[in-house]
Design a protein that fits this description.
Elements lengths: L4 H7 L8 H12 L2 H5 L3 E3 H8 L4 E2 L5 E2 L6 H10 L4 E2 L7 E3 L20 E7 L5 H10 L4 E7 L2 E5 L7 E7 L4 E7 L3 H17 L6 E6 L5 E2 L16 E3 H9 L4 E4 L2 E4 H5 L25 H26 L3 H30 L1
Antiparallel strand pairs: 1-5, 2-3, 4-5, 6-10, 6-11, 7-8, 8-9, 9-10, 11-13, 12-15, 14-15
Helix pairs in contact: 2-11, 6-7, 10-11
Keywords: Membrane, Repeat, Transmembrane, Transmembrane helix
Organism: Candidatus Kentrum sp. MB
InterPro entries: COR-A, COR-B
């Protein structure tokens, strides 16, 4: 049984989901429909009804899964809860956007001042998962500027800091997620977006990556060193964020590298300060003391649920012929199982108060 406390608080939903397969198969029918592909990820309320209402959908055991019209809204809200879609700002109750199915081409005339921006890269060792960017887009959909979102990127305009923009792009061939922020409130907006990406990556602990700061030419000292030619990506000067913070902690004033000599303070000036000047790591672990009593029980349940989610996702992946679809649905099943555990723990904490 699954209950969504957030959906209850926001939308006053009181339903309990007794069959997770009902949710999984319903989402599959929507995400992999030809209709949604033709509409480049735009899902209208009428589309949900057309694709699911009174359709004879069966699970892998041959059990019929009914989708009455009065339950379809719950299905879409659950998709948004799992960050598979977000409500369209112009019609939040009747239209949703699925980032994975957005147009693949970058919009024309983005008008983003890259040359004056703070530019930061997350460079992945072997694989950049497409869910990283799509989840980021869902989390920050309210800031999307003029619907400038596509499969490989998004342009944002902060609602809280005037005239401050950001652009996030994913290069799946070179396995780089880039974050650029420009405007008078660079440090504040960058801190929010950097933290958001970090939280997403914490949920994907097997993705190994390094963080790199692109070196601002305005911080260069002297004329020596390698300079980019025609803005070619592979020649853009950059340095490990961890290295820069270590140099700062050691009291160094300059960065000396193959690209030249740079004023370290000026390079790091736009970046948010971290406690002890220590960079965040890709690990989700910490130095917390071992739990005891009920805390140990809660963490044990969370661990078991995580293992269950992996097993459920793997089963789905191996049982479907379409491995790409199986991977997405496997992740979704894992999320459903984790949600069940989270709901149980939430109730447990409430009962202790």
């Amino acid at each position: 049984m699954i209950w969504f406390p957030k959906l209850y608080r926001v939308y006053r939903f009181q339903e309990y989901l007794l069959n997770p397969r009902w949710l999984t198969y319903g989402v599959y029918q929507l995400l992999y429909s030809e209709l949604l592909k033709r509409q480049h990820g735009e899902l209208h309320r009428g589309d949900v009804t057309e694709l699911l209402k009174d359709k004879a959908i069966e699970d892998e055991h041959g059990n019929r899964l009914p989708y009455p019209e009065e339950r379809l809204d719950f299905l879409v809200r659950a998709m948004a809860e799992f960050k598979l879609c977000y409500p369209a700002l112009e019609s939040p109750n009747d239209k949703w956007i699925v980032p994975d199915l957005l147009p693949s081409d970058q919009p024309e005339r983005l008008a983003f001042p890259k040359e004056d921006a703070l530019r930061f890269d997350f460079r992945f060792d072997t694989f950049l998962h497409r869910h990283v960017l799509s989840q980021f887009i869902v989390e920050h959909y309210r800031d999307i500027r003029d619907n400038q979102a596509w499969q490989h990127g998004v342009c944002l305009a902060s609602r809280h800091w005037d005239d401050t923009l950001a652009m996030v792009q994913a290069n799946y061939q070179s396995r780089v997620l880039s974050l650029a922020v420009a405007g008078p409130w660079v440090r504040d907006y960058f801190a929010v977006l950097y933290h958001s990406i970090g939280k997403i990556l914490e949920r994907m602990p097997k993705l190994r990556y390094v963080e790199q700061l692109r070196l601002d030419e305005r911080a260069r000292i002297g004329e020596e060193g390698i300079r980019p030619v025609d803005g070619r990506e592979e020649e853009i000067p950059r340095e490990s964020y961890r290295t820069l913070l270590a140099l700062e902690a050691a009291g160094q004033k300059q960065l000396i590298c193959e690209f030249g000599t740079y004023d370290l303070e000026r390079l790091l000036r736009p970046l948010p300060k971290k406690k002890g000047n220590e960079p965040e790591t890709t690990s989700t672990g910490g130095s917390n003391p071992p739990p005891s009593g009920s805390g140990l029980l809660d963490r044990s349940i969370a661990t078991v649920s995580a293992l269950g989610s992996v097993a459920g996702g793997l089963f789905t992946y191996l049982s479907l012929d379409d491995k790409v679809a199986g991977g997405v649905i496997g992740v979704f099943i894992g999320a459903v199982i984790l949600a069940a555990s989270a709901a149980w723990l939430w109730h447990r904490k409430r009962s202790k108060r």
